[in-house]
């Protein structure tokens, strides 16, 4: 049977979730949250670096926002970045319904320097609805957890844009691909996050794209790579990060063997490139003496 591009991609992701959500990998994830007390409205002020501010969202988006805030998923990514990289300017990340656009890093607006990341409440709601649809019948990953993972990837992607701007990092090729790479670099190499983060993001991009299986000029002209390409790129980075552990995602209806062959090298190149780019901006390791 010839599946449409859409059906086929959904199958790819569902299969990969089933493969990755085996207990040995699930146990490497952050433990199931036991609903910690709500985070303070704003993470502590600091001279530079990233911080998270949760504004009161519109009623329709409030429950999704509250769940995400309580999970502290976003704050974990922000502390991983703040622990690693020095950014002299303070860059707030706002969860707000005061904006129509986003999620986005806004370097400036109307000629004024801004340097903020915005996440609109409506986007959280849209993600929530999309992931619920996408994960119907998929075992091993629920929509609530997928929403946390997907937004960990999305916030790391936006932080990548902010780093390119603030640290004047060179980018050759599409910046959208480069900062997808930053998110994968940051999150796959850190045991606190793991492969379900990029995978949930792949699933999200797949689900929210208006897509009837036909691609038009606007898809090809888009500054982002096609969702299908992002899905396979993320699978390739996951597999390349540990080819023994993730060998299960290679094969028929998943990551094609022909692509998989190069993924270990691709992942090594990703790591060494970001290591080099960030090297001058790394925080000094605390003195052990
Ligand atoms: Zn982007």
Question: What can you tell me about this protein's structure?
Answer:
It is a single chain. It contains twelve helices and four strands; from the N terminus they run H-H-E-H-H-E-E-E-H-H-H-H-H-H-H-H. The protein has 289 residues and is of the alpha/beta class. The chain has one domain. Strands 1-2-4-3 form a four-stranded mixed beta sheet. Strand 3 and strand 4 form a beta hairpin. It binds zinc ion. Zinc ion (ZN) is lined by residues 157, 161, 176, 179.
Beta content comes to 5-15%
Tell me how many strands there are. 4
Determine the mean pLDDT: 84
Hetero compounds = zinc ion
Uncertain stretches of 5 or more adjacent residues = 1-7, 22-40
Query: Regarding quaternary structure, how should these chains be classified?
Result: single chain
Coarse morphology: globular
Q: Roughly how many Å is the radius of gyration?
A: 19 Å
Overall tally of structural domains? 1
Helix-strand string: HHEHHEEEHHHHHHHH
The level of helicity is: 40-55%
